[in-house]
């Protein structure tokens, strides 16, 4: 039986924001982290800066992820206001926030930001690049270069990520072999759900396939491409 080395770690915070398709004033969140968020988390731990496009591309091409969602958390919708210059003045390409606030007349923009409260999941990562092997990624999560957060900077993790390298024949075996802390296990709601990317040996069938738009193409230009995500709703 062929065994692969998986990097498995836990993600928990009182508030998490995993992004989604932002339209107009709404800043939604999915119930579990997407590919862009997980790559960003690893990049922060490794100390990669946004302008290091080649390093980000290498990490992106190396890693594939699977997720075991114990609790999607309760939804929290936060109301925001921000002062902005009039629309016509925006065309002058004000360089800084200070420049915007110096404008004599400011308008108000409203937005709504969604968060997940007490969400808990496990992440399993596979790497095909020796430069970003699972042992190195595990060490980076233990001693991250940059602060880690779960989607937004206002959402730092509230429990250690406790990364562990697990040899397993498939994704589900790796995720099910990891033991989360008892205090976090109490957060589980219902049967855990599983999510994964194309091309992974999962050890389970998928109940459905969902489109996601979170494959990063450029961190500097903030460009993303679509991909498919596979979902198993749990059970045997």
From TrEMBL:
- Which Pfam families would you find in this protein's record? Cas_Cas5d
Lineage top rank: taxon: Bacteria
Q: Read off the Gene3D superfamilies from this record.
A: 3.30.70.2660
Which keywords describe this protein according to UniProt?
A: Antiviral defense
The protein's name is: CRISPR-associated Cas5e family protein
GO MF term set: RNA binding
Q: Which organism is it from?
A: Thiolapillus brandeum
InterPro entries named in the record: CRISPR-assoc_prot_Cas5, CRISPR-assoc_prot_Cas5_N, CRISPR-assoc_prot_CasD
């Amino acid at each position: 039986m062929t065994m692969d080395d998986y990097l498995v770690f836990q993600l928990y915070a009182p508030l998490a924001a995993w992004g989604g398709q932002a339209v107009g004033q709404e800043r939604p969140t999915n119930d579990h982290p997407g590919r862009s968020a997980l790559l960003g988390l690893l990049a922060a731990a490794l100390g990669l800066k946004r302008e290091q496009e080649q390093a980000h591309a290498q990490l992106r091409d190396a890693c594939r992820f699977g997720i075991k969602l114990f609790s999607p958390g309760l939804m929290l919708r936060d109301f925001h206001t921000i002062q902005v210059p009039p629309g016509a003045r925006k065309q002058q390409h004000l360089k800084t926030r200070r420049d915007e606030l110096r404008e004599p007349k400011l308008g108000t923009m409203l937005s709504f930001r969604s968060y997940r409260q007490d969400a808990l999941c496990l992440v399993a990562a596979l790497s095909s690049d020796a430069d970003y092997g699972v042992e190195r990624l595990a060490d980076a999560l233990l001693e991250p270069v940059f602060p880690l957060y779960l989607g937004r900077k206002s959402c730092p993790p509230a429990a250690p990520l406790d990364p562990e390298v697990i040899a397993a024949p498939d994704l589900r075996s790796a995720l099910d072999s990891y033991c989360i802390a008892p205090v976090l296990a109490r957060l589980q709601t219902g049967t855990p759900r599983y999510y994964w990317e194309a091309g992974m040996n999962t050890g389970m069938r998928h109940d459905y396939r969902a489109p996601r738009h979170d494959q990063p193409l450029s961190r500097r230009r903030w460009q993303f491409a679509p991909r498919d995500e596979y979902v198993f709703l749990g059970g045997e």
